[in-house]
Specification:
The chain has helices at residues 17-28, 53-58, 99-102, 112-115, 117-125, 143-157, 194-206, 256-262, 313-323, 418-427, 471-490, 560-579; strands at residues 3-4, 8-13, 33-36, 71-74, 82-83, 165-166, 169-170, 211-212, 222-223, 229-230, 266-269, 272-280, 285-293, 298-309, 346-354, 370-373, 392-397, 431-438, 447-455, 461-466, 495-498, 543-544. By secondary structure, it is an alpha/beta fold. It has a single domain (3-582), classed as FAD/NAD(P)-binding domain, CATH 3.50.50.60. Strands 1, 2, 3, 11, 12, 13, 14 and 22 form an 8-stranded mixed beta sheet that branches. A 6-stranded antiparallel beta sheet has the order 8-16-17-18-15-21. Strands 5-4-20-19 form a 4-stranded mixed beta sheet, covered by helices on one side. Helix 6 packs across helix 12 (560-579) and helix 7 (194-206) packs across helix 11 (471-490). The longest helix is centred in the C-terminal third of the chain and has 20 residues, at 471-490. It is globular. The chain starts with a strand and ends in a 10-residue tail after the last helix. The mean pLDDT is 95. Residues 397-417 are annotated as: Disordered. This is GMC family oxidoreductase. Pfam families: GMC_oxred_C, GMC_oxred_N. Residues 442-567 form the Glucose-methanol-choline oxidoreductase C-terminal domain. InterPro entries: FAD/NAD-bd_sf, GMC_OxRdtase_N, GMC_OxRtase_C.
């Protein structure tokens, strides 16, 4: 039997970027906030001298335990889904800070086009340009409305970059295709290495406009807007799948969470696995959450005036489905909203170049050290004669060549033996790769629901993912592969190997990206979305669901910058709701 605890003002389900931002914002206003995190606590001290590539990059020490909970996967609705028994395409994290600890730090704002994508596409190309089974929809908010929250996140996190558009004025050296920003980045961009200069020179020669990409690896030491002192990046090359011992990669454990703790109004409970949102359907509200302390298996109910569902994308959707909140999406009829518009990321367009007479120090690097161009992203180019919509950002990153997993060799090289060793030594510092991070748009048969056959450690149904590529994805990736190949040739590579685009069905086995989105999408219509533009649930007025689960599609960018902006927007909405409980009126306008 569950033990009922004393009620609090706000409980967050997960303590990563979204949970941390909401905890800080509400605790500073004097509200009592409890953060429930199913993993353990972390700090910068945990990473001191721990550059353990085998343990963290290959054995996934910071990731969710798949033996206790995983997902099942299939390509089509008629297929039988099978459990993901080992990590592959994506890596959901666990523990305080969540993916905000093990991320690389690339921090984009989605384009103005993204937030009004259906309207803008129809205005420019007509309704017939949208395939019949593509469920493209506007987000219920504009870039202009979200810009102050982007700015707030960037100045809290200390993002390094160079602006390309300040209040509509195009700036030198920045991204000329970005949405207008109210001011420049808080810190200058990271260093332009010789390898990145080679990429930018090649991109310019082909006719594109490259720039240093925005980074949460700090180019300088920085005191943020909350008075937190952050360190300067050492370019050690251990960002992705690792925590940063210097506090030089902005993450929740070194930014928002210490501030929340200092208020005295925030309580963090680790090893607390939420298994249900307590839902009163008649009153259209949640009364709290039920969770299990997995160290003792004790069960608790935590009442709260507001619940913020701030877990990872897949866990947000699963908890909604397990708790009976909202109508589950039905791919046959198109009815329902929970689980709808699941999207992934398209990395099918890429090229690698091998240089016989060039060498760079590629051991040095950082997760978000890179250069990019946006000329083929969003609707920054004419799609009139294209057989796909949207596009992607093309970039080259110098993340640091770690010793175990980084052995680039030409494709005709054997995968072991003396020739493999010889080629590995030859090209370890003489090969460069560029790729297009392509958008994935929503289709009728790509969705999330509960699996009827498989359960987790507690006997609860696993989340089932149904996803496959469509002609849209193949065409985009083929176009992007050609762009990457042309740029690599202009960079002077002696041998260029391009992917040619996606082939076959989506493969969940090799790692690609942890950029899962959708399933609890935002919008202006309760019939088409789960949450409004304050991330407030239409079916439970005191439930807020920020995070990438709210994305109505996935753009050609990393999601965290937009996740951060939506978290600040949600925090504002929660505060307004606590002052005057109701459906937030502004969200309907």
């Amino acid at each position: 039997m569950a033990q009922e605890l004393d009620p609090v003002d706000v409980v967050t389900v997960g303590v990563g970027w979204t949970g941390g931002i909401i905890a800080k914002e509400l605790a500073e206003e004097g509200y009592e906030v409890v953060g429930l995190e199913r993993g353990g606590e972390r700090s910068t001290e945990d990473w001191l001298t721990v550059h353990d590539e085998l343990g963290y990059a290959l054995r996934y020490k910071l990731m969710q335990d798949l033996s206790r909970e995983t997902i099942t996967f299939r390509h089509e609705p008629g297929d039988t889904a099978l459990p993901m028994r080992r990590y592959g395409a994506f890596l959901p994290g666990t523990g305080v800070g969540g993916a905000g600890v093990h991320w690389n730090g690339v921090t984009w704002r989605f384009l103005p086009y993204d937030f009004e994508i259906r309207s803008e596409t129809i205005d420019r190309y007509g309704e017939d340009s949208i395939p019949e089974d593509m469920q493209l929809q506007d987000w219920g908010i504009t870039y202009e409305e979200l810009e102050p929250y982007f700015d707030e996140f960037e100045y809290m996190a200390g993002i390094s970059g160079v602006a390309g558009n300040i209040e509509g004025e195009i700036q030198d050296d920045g991204n000329p295709h970005e949405g207008p920003r109210s001011r420049d980045f808080p810190l200058p961009p990271m260093m332009e290495t010789p390898a990145l200069e080679t990429f930018m020179d090649g991109a310019e020669e082909v006719g594109f406009e490259p720039f240093m990409q925005p980074s949460a690896n700090l180019s300088e030491s920085y005191e943020n807007t909350d008075g937190v002192q952050l360190g300067q990046c050492e370019y050690c090359g251990y960002c992705e799948r690792f925590g940063c011992e210097w506090g030089a990669k902005s993450d929740p454990t070194v930014t928002v969470l210490p501030v929340a703790h200092e208020t005295g109004n925030f309580e963090l409970r680790t090893h607390s696995n939420v298994v249900e949102l307590l839902y009163d359907e008649d009153e259209e509200e949640v009364t709290g959450v039920k969770y299990v302390d997995h160290r003792t298996n004790d069960v608790y109910e935590q009442p709260a005036d507001v619940v913020a569902l701030t877990a990872y994308v897949l866990n947000n959707v699963r908890l909604l489905l397990l708790s009976g909140i909202g109508e589950p999406y039905d791919p046959e009829t198109g009815d329902g909203v929970v689980g709808k518009n699941y999207c992934y990321q398209n990395f099918g367009g890429a090229a690698t170049g091998f240089f016989d007479d060039e060498e760079w120090n590629l051991y040095m690097g950082a997760g978000a050290l890179g250069a990019a161009f946006d000329d083929i992203n969003g609707d920054n180019f004419d799609h009139e004669d294209r057989d796909f919509l949207h596009g992607g950002s093309v970039s080259m990153s110098q993340t640091g060549e770690r010793p175990i997993a980084n052995n680039p060799v030409p494709e005709d090289t054997p995968s072991w033996g003396s020739e493999f060793k010889e080629q590995s030594l030859e090209y370890n510092h003489s090969s460069l790769s560029i790729s297009c991070q392509g958008a994935v748009l929503p289709f009728q048969n790509n969705y999330l629901d509960l699996d009827p056959n498989y359960t987790d450690d507690y006997g609860l149904p696993l989340l089932r993912m149904t996803f496959n590529w469509h002609e849209q994805d193949y065409a985009l990736s083929e176009f992007a592969s050609d762009v990457c190949e042309r740029v690599m040739e202009a960079m002077g590579a002696d041998t260029v190997e391009a992917t040619g685009g996606l082939e076959g069905d989506f493969d969940i086995i090799p790692y690609q990206s942890t950029h899962n989105t959708g399933g609890a999408i935002m919008g202006a219509d309760p019939e088409e979305s789960v949450v409004n533009n304050y991330l407030q649930c239409w079916d439970a007025h005191n439930l807020f669901i920020p995070g990438a689960s709210a994305f109505a599609h996935n753009s050609g960018y990393n999601p965290t910058g937009t996740v951060g902006a939506l978290a600040y927007r949600a925090a504002e909405g929660i505060e307004d709701y606590l002052e005057s409980p109701d459906l937030l009126a502004d969200a309907e306008s």
